[in-house]
């Protein structure tokens, strides 16, 4: 039997965090939680990290402030009778141990945590689990900053493209800012591409998101996007929305497998996309060639395989000039 992946463990831990935060566990749920936490050290680690952002100490009445103080004597102002974990039930005991860790951390950290920066190199993709259990997959040459606290889940996409799978939390909307535009969600999945011309592209693969302008003080909503919609929003907030099929979504997300799929796009568009993953510079010899339609399924950073396909199937020759740029000419 295969072992649970890191992603699966993070998801399980997130579910327990929300369940505990929303209401007291039933006896059966206590037993299930106990079994899950003790099953693997990775379970306890994931739960502790995620719960630090979510669980309120006030929702665990069996742990009073004085009890916590006594278990952490380094920070106690007056000695009192320490709580004994031996007299608690196994479930209560593990809750004590976990919550004590959370409280110590929370007391001695700035209420607003330092932003965390994630990035990828050219040709690299990376999947990251954020502090709340949301998952982000960064595309090539991308970077983002995540800023979390008890009220905020704020992401700044500094450059590039990312796919977000948002853990549902109605108390803290998930906000992604890119090029002075904001994408706001509660629990959904979507991509955001921050383009170099200050435009953004947003594609929703699950749920619904709100597009907003961060430069307006009020009434900043531009539009709402539903599953299967793709929006192009330029620097002047001119919006174009189109519907995308399941096949088109798979095509646009092929980069997650380090692949690129084209179905009749112009050569100029194809080589622009390939440059993002390879760092190569392309020169197209004529406007007519730039408009030539190209189709195929290519490894994102394998320029040689791409050029071989152009030569064998599209009658296009390629050579490298003195600057290292790849010059494309029609045969």
From TrEMBL:
Keywords: Membrane, Transmembrane, Transmembrane helix. InterPro entries: FecR, FecR_C, FecR_N, Ferrdict_sens_TM. Residues 260-319 form the Protein FecR C-terminal domain. The keyword Membrane applies. This is Transmembrane sensor. Residues 118-210 form the FecR protein domain. Gene3D superfamilies: 2.60.120.1440, 3.55.50.30. It holds the Pfam family FecR. The keyword Transmembrane helix applies. GO terms for molecular function: sigma factor antagonist activity. The chain crosses the membrane at residues 87-106. Residues 12-52 form the FecR N-terminal domain. It comes from Marinagarivorans cellulosilyticus.
